[in-house]
Amino acid sequence: MPNLAQERAPGQTIELPLEREVSTIPRAKDSSKWEYPSAQQFYNALVRKGWETPEEHVQMMVDIHNFLNEEAWQEILKWEPQYVTHSHTLSFLSDQKIKCFCLLWLGIRIHISPNSEENLASYR
User: Is the pLDDT of residue 21 over 70?
Assistant: First the structure.
């Protein structure tokens, strides 16, 4: 994970939490989990992008962001077994290239983007 600034943004008037929440979503490179940004990091990113954001609403924005990511991940986990005969084989594979390769190897037709198609070419 990149080192995201935890310092207050210029002109920031209230203190924002610095704690980060660990996700249930596995990372592709190892067995660790993703970490969500703290409210301060989230706010700093919005300021950096030039988005006007009321500081008092940032924590709620972070909570919604994290909730939506977690719910989307749960939907993916529910969806996967419907289309993959050997879902237990794929559930621990978080690397998208490897998942696509396994699906293709199992003979399951999938729609992938042109970018993914280029990445998969190295596995064929």
Answer: yes
**How many residues are listed for the chain in this entry?**
124
Res. 71: pLDDT tops 90: yes
State the DSSP H helix or E strand holding residue 33, giving kind and residue range, or none if neither.
Answer: strand 33-35
Instruction: Name the residue among 18, 48, 50, 51 with its Cα closest to residue 35.
Output: 18
Q: What are the CA-CA distances from residue 65 to residues 9, 24, 39, 95 (Å)? A: 20, 14, 11, 22
Q: Is the pTM of this model over 0.90?
A: no
d(CA 30, CA 83): 25
3-state DSSP call for residue 76?
A: helix
Percent of the chain with pLDDT over 70: 64
Q: Report DSSP state, residue 122.
A: T
Domain boundaries, the chain: 1-83, 85-124
Helix (H) / strand (E) containing 26:
strand 22-26
- Helices 96-105 and 114-121 meet at what angle, rounded to 10? 80
Tokens 């409210």, residue located: 39
